[in-house]
Amino acid sequence: MADLSLAGNGDDLLLTLLSLASDYRREVEAAWDRERRESEAIERQAAVEQASDFVALHFPHTLAKALPAGAWQGYPSGGESRQPMATAYLGAEAFLIHGTEYDGDRPDGLRGFLLLLHPCPCGDYVETWIDSEYDLAFVLDDLRRADTCEELCRPPYSFGGE
Questions:
Q1: What is the pLDDT of residue 5?
Q2: From start to end of 84-156, where are the E strands?
Q3: How confident is the model at residue 80 (pLDDT cuts 50, 70, 90)?
Q4: Which of 35, 53, 72, 80 is the most buried (most CB within 10 A)?
């Protein structure tokens, strides 16, 4: 391949083309970056709205009353095989995680879920699926009494991995 940086005067057309192509590439990449940021903002907002709606529908007597407006933080999908999600900090290093997963039995193909991520006495974290307000009350009651590790935990950096 020729060293195009050393082209002579007769190669002005090629140098012009290189400059135009480079400028165009930067414009396209900037547009892609804007589109990605806009898409992520939409995904974040949708995740927050889905989490709020899910809690209002399935946890009207507990979480819907306890979580303040703006408690949810949305996160974009980050890839084709992952769905956007939202988290809400509860205090004492405990978090709610709302997400969706594929469910072929539903018309839209997605089903919402809620997880409680909380510290274990050993220093790692426990991830607990919360299916109802009764489950939530039971798990929260257990948290108050937990003083030993039941080995249901894993390090926080391992969540979300395959």
A1: 56
A2: 85-91, 94-102, 110-119, 125-129, 153-154
A3: low
A4: 72
